[in-house]
TrEMBL record:
Source species: Paenibacillus wynnii
Binding site for ATP: G11, T12, S13, S14, S15, G16, K17, T18
Coiled-coil portions: none
InterPro entries according to UniProt: CPT (IPR012853), P-loop_NTPase (IPR027417)
Signal sequence bounds: none
Residues the record marks as active site: D38
Molecular function as annotated in GO: ATP binding; transferase activity
Name of protein: Chemotaxis protein
Pfam families (alphabetical): CPT
Length: 198
């Protein structure tokens, strides 16, 4: 079975990844599934609330998250889901925030042999902060905290900017790029990781 195409969007909260994903699903000729790291984490949080009810509070869940008791295995499981769907021939749009170098390392290890396009979604900090305030559903300062690290030392197959271009324009750019190109960045990362350091 042919491996599915993975459109892997990496960017800060409020950078426009979800909006681009929805537009891509609308305009792409083939069917694509949408996988979000936010949904993966919030799903576990909801499960804890259902299991423990009044015996666990949101503050306790945040403490568990801070101590990475849940986050590490959930993020790793999320990465393995991406691989599993691709290997099953499913096309996927991934909405992620790679703020930990180990997350990128795991994605490189798992996905370097798949057709995964690593795409950077950019937006200037002042616009991110405005969107964050207007949305009202994200902690104030989240985008700023992620801004300096989410693209640090990254290379991408393609980069888009949701401040300079509309969501529709970004989605069309991505669609047209994957039609006429093959991904290379994850494979390059994987090759470099295997090379002995000088």
């Amino acid at each position: 079975m042919n491996k599915g195409t993975v459109i892997f969007l990496n960017g800060t909260s409020s950078s426009g990844k979800t909006s681009i994903s929805k537009e891509l699903i609308r305009i792409l000729e083939e069917d694509f599934m949408y996988l979000s790291v936010d949904h993966a984490i919030s799903g576990v949080n909801d499960m804890l609330m259902n299991m423990f009810g009044e015996h666990i509070t949101r503050e306790e869940i945040r403490r568990i998250e801070d101590e990475e008791i849940i986050e590490k295995p959930v993020i790793s499981l999320f990465h393995h889901y991406i691989l599993a769907f691709s290997m099953a021939g499913k096309n996927i749009i991934v909405d992620h925030v790679l703020v930990d170098s180990k997350w990128l390392e795991e994605c490189v290890q798992l996905l370097s042999d798949t057709r995964t396009f690593l795409i950077g979604v950019h937006c200037p900090i002042n616009e991110l902060e405005r969107r964050e305030r207007d949305r009202g559903d994200r902690p104030i300062g989240l985008a700023s905290a992620q801004f300096t690290i989410v693209h640090e030392n990254f290379q991408y197959d393609l980069e888009v900017n949701t401040h300079m271009n509309s969501v529709s324009e970004c989605a069309v750019t991505i669609r047209d790029f994957i039609k006429t190109n093959e991904p290379s960045v994850l494979q390059t990362f994987h090759t470099e990781a295997k090379e002995p350091s000088q």
